[in-house]
Write a structure and sequence with these properties.
With 65 residues, the protein is α+β, with helices and mostly antiparallel strands. It has one domain. The chain is 14% helix and 12% strand. The protein has a two-stranded antiparallel ribbon.
């Protein structure tokens, strides 16, 4: 191990975070451009014919990478 002070200024790459859940890969890697500018999503059901405005959050699958 190593000693360090003031960890507030330490940057950690998201791939070094230990796995803590089944869907962690969708939460840890995110490009800078997606942090505040919106998210890319698709309907969870590939056969969903509703317009994007009609698809509720629960029926969306988000991609953050």
């Amino acid at each position: 191990g190593a000693y360090y002070a003031n960890p507030c200024y330490t940057q950690i790459h998201p791939t070094c975070i230990p796995v803590s859940g089944d869907y962690q890969s969708k939460l840890t890697l995110m490009s800078e451009s997606l942090r505040n500018d919106g998210r890319v999503w698709v309907p969870k059901d590939v056969n969903d014919k509703r317009s994007p405005e009609q698809i509720p959050e629960a029926d969306r699958d988000y991609y953050l990478e």
